[in-house]
Amino acid sequence: MSSRFYRKSRLLAVGALAISALAARPALAGGTRTTTSYKCAAAPSPVTNAATYTVSGSGFPPGMVVNVYIKDKISTWIVYGGLYAGGTVAANGTFSLGPIVSTVFYPSNLGTKTVSVVNANDRRTTTLTTCTFSVQ
């Protein structure tokens, strides 16, 4: 009976050490987690139909090429950042894609547009940040 007690107590001690090691791991690795705050904006908003606008962003890693997806209830347009001079993020973490033409052919397609910014080299096209603007 006493050997069973020792086995259980050893198992309990090993389990407690494993849990404490897992809990201490973030503190040993540096303790803080960095979060990235990507931001984007479209200007002007509202934009008049068939006029131009610019999508800009900040907080991105320098050298990243960004693609912009502009979505509404009917369509999605893709602006390939590699085709624009401002599509590569500058040393200060900013980009500016423009001028982009806001031509809307159907009146039902006017209104709010959602802009999604993605890394052009990400095959999964993970959205890094979003912003909105309207076309009237």
Structure characteristics:
136 residues, alpha+beta, 4-stranded antiparallel β-sheet, 3-stranded antiparallel β-sheet, 1 helix
What does this structure look like?
A four-stranded antiparallel sheet has the order 4-3-6-7, with no helix packed on it. Strands 1-2-5 form a three-stranded antiparallel sheet, with no helix packed on it. It has 136 residues and is of the alpha+beta class. It has one helix at residues 2-28; strands spanning 39-43, 52-58, 66-71, 76-80, 95-101, 111-119, 127-135. The model is unreliable at 12-18 and 24-31 (pLDDT under 50). The protein is globular, with a radius of gyration of 25 Å.
What is the averaged pLDDT score?
82
* Strand line-up in the sheet with most strands: 4-3-6-7
Strand composition percent: 35-45%
| SSE pattern | HEEEEEEE
Q: Output the radius of gyration.
A: 25 Å
* Separate helix tally: 1
**Oligomer category:** single chain
Uncertain segments are: 12-18, 24-31
Structural class: alpha+beta
Please give the number of β-strands.
Answer: 7
Distance between the termini: 82 Å
Rough shape?
globular
- Largest β sheet strand count, sense and barrel closure: 4 strands, antiparallel
Helix content: 10-25%
